[in-house]
Amino acid sequence: MEVALHPLRLKQLLHLAAASKPHFLFGNIRPLFTLRCSSSSAAGTAVVAGGRNRRPPSSATSTSDREAVRAIRIKKVQELRSKGLDPYAYKWERTHTADQLQEIYRNLGNGEELTTESDHVSIAGRIVARRAFGKLAFLTLRDDSGTIQLYCEKEKLISDQFENLKTLVDIGDILGASGSIKRTEKGELSVCLTSFSILTKSLLPLPDKYHGLTDIDKRYRQRYVDMIANPEVADTFRKRAKIISEIRKTVESAGFVEVETPVLQGAAGGAEARPFITYHNSLGQDLYLRIATELHLKRMLVGGFEKVYEIGRIFRNEGLSTRHNPEFTTIEMYEAYSDYESMMNMTEEIITRCALAVNGKLTLDYQGVEISLERPWRRETMHNLVKEATGIDFTKFGDDLTAAKEVVLQTLDIGRDNQTKSSIEACPSVGHLLNEVFELAVESQLLQPTFVLDYPLEVSPLAKPHRRHAGLTERFELFVCGREMANAFSELTDPLDQRERLEEQVRQHRKKNAALVSEASDTDNKNKDMDDGAYEVTLDEDFLTALEYGMPPASGLGLGIDRLVMLLTNSASIRDVIAFPVLKTQQ
């Protein structure tokens, strides 16, 4: 049986609870009613002892109840100060974490208590659950390592500390606690409290433990609450930290040196992406947030470094999806006197070592698909993968773009998909068309780790020409679960060839912009079309100058860390692995 309290009565009871002893608890007997003032119950719930703790249908906290709880807790802050107690402490000396205590006393028997001086411990953390039974109370304390129970007896606490604990301590408060160690008859390791201090008084209520924080948008906006309410979320970010640490260990053990390159740049280069633009007042000029670290890392090779890498944030002013966030993290690395074969081996090494570090094995489940990271991974050319998936052999077309488009449109089941048809018809070369067909028909099918080799020259402006196949480059991309994970080249070092390719890229981009302007002028969506596709691309003349001083033969790799974390933590969205993802501002 459950009794739902009217909101007004809830506020009256809360006020009563704050001002005096909780009259609904009686002595040492089991309570008849337990009032749970959790954060997400709109009106609160009175639950008959022994009931199944069912909740009303709505778990959302109304603004009025939230403010009522906040007002009560502010009064408790004032009461603490009136008693000479600081509700926002400076520090706390602790001897152990919760996990350390669980490990040290794992063999302590049920009902045993240790009271020697060496077994007197001091811990600190957030209170995530509490129960009071007259002269006895149980609190669950969680710190960064785990949880432990606080066993609170009135007789063991001095003065009015027990009453303060019952009336002034709320779920969400951060406590420092000292006491001896015991294991209850039910097997729960506990700190038998002899003293405590409120280190931080929480003013806002947490989501209740039955429903948690389930609103996806709110979880991303208030990640701090998400991590409190859903501890597994914090575990994902611990794994992320471990993955980044393992990447550093792997590449530095191979002799790579970590360097830092500018985030603010005079020209946005190293990728085909729309940049964020800002303005520097003192310089009186526009600057761009970097869209890649590539060109400055190559400058380091020109300067004499032979193995360099950077782990850093990249910024691209493009769309949002489960795979894309405007700011994301990559590792880019460059090795002199090596080619793209070397980077395939390094990619395998980095990812397998990260998988073992966080999961202890090389097989994993990603969204219901079993993935094997056992080496070696499949290596196949883009031409062969397209031929395997569609039957189209692009080597037969030479430079005959018209014939290639006719075969593609006849072979692929496009139907009424006008957008796909337009994308195919807009391809300016056979190389672009090959890449388009790969993205349409092959990419999503590459579930197991696959290196896709030898991309067309037209879509790889920074890669070295293939030494055996004209029109192709020594480039690979790694795909897992139908997603690009890494991109690598044998780097282009010929400064004249590099200038020609980048100038052609600029021409093609301006041609595309002109087409967008023309198309938008014929529609009512001019501003939207322009915002989605039109932006300026400029040559990085200083990079071209650096190449003319001479860059050694080299290979380079870019690996998306966010997508790697998604894979190794079985996270469906990139927002699940970025602590504070970009979201539209709430009005």
From TrEMBL:
<dbReference type="InterPro" id="IPR006195">
    <property type="entry name" value="aa-tRNA-synth_II"/>
</dbReference>
<dbReference type="InterPro" id="IPR018149">
    <property type="entry name" value="Lys-tRNA-synth_II_C"/>
</dbReference>
<dbReference type="GO" id="GO:0000049">
    <property type="term" value="F:tRNA binding"/>
</dbReference>
<dbReference type="GO" id="GO:0004824">
    <property type="term" value="F:lysine-tRNA ligase activity"/>
</dbReference>
<dbReference type="InterPro" id="IPR044136">
    <property type="entry name" value="Lys-tRNA-ligase_II_N"/>
</dbReference>
<dbReference type="Pfam" id="PF00152">
    <property type="entry name" value="tRNA-synt_2"/>
</dbReference>
<keyword id="KW-0436">Ligase</keyword>
<feature type="region of interest" description="Disordered">
    <location>
        <begin position="46"/>
        <end position="65"/>
    </location>
</feature>
<dbReference type="InterPro" id="IPR012340">
    <property type="entry name" value="NA-bd_OB-fold"/>
</dbReference>
<dbReference type="InterPro" id="IPR045864">
    <property type="entry name" value="aa-tRNA-synth_II/BPL/LPL"/>
</dbReference>
<feature type="domain" description="Aminoacyl-transfer RNA synthetases class-II family profile">
    <location>
        <begin position="237"/>
        <end position="581"/>
    </location>
</feature>
<comment type="similarity">
    <text>Belongs to the class-II aminoacyl-tRNA synthetase family.</text>
</comment>
<keyword id="KW-0067">ATP-binding</keyword>
<keyword id="KW-0547">Nucleotide-binding</keyword>
<dbReference type="GO" id="GO:0005829">
    <property type="term" value="C:cytosol"/>
</dbReference>
<dbReference type="GO" id="GO:0046872">
    <property type="term" value="F:metal ion binding"/>
</dbReference>
<protein>
    <recommendedName>
        <fullName>Lysine--tRNA ligase</fullName>
        <ecNumber>6.1.1.6</ecNumber>
    </recommendedName>
</protein>
<feature type="region of interest" description="Disordered">
    <location>
        <begin position="509"/>
        <end position="531"/>
    </location>
</feature>
<dbReference type="GO" id="GO:0005739">
    <property type="term" value="C:mitochondrion"/>
</dbReference>
<keyword id="KW-0648">Protein biosynthesis</keyword>
<keyword id="KW-0479">Metal-binding</keyword>
<dbReference type="InterPro" id="IPR004364">
    <property type="entry name" value="Aa-tRNA-synt_II"/>
</dbReference>
<dbReference type="InterPro" id="IPR004365">
    <property type="entry name" value="NA-bd_OB_tRNA"/>
</dbReference>
<keyword id="KW-0030">Aminoacyl-tRNA synthetase</keyword>
<dbReference type="InterPro" id="IPR002313">
    <property type="entry name" value="Lys-tRNA-ligase_II"/>
</dbReference>
<dbReference type="Pfam" id="PF01336">
    <property type="entry name" value="tRNA_anti-codon"/>
</dbReference>
<dbReference type="GO" id="GO:0005524">
    <property type="term" value="F:ATP binding"/>
</dbReference>
<dbReference type="GO" id="GO:0006430">
    <property type="term" value="P:lysyl-tRNA aminoacylation"/>
</dbReference>
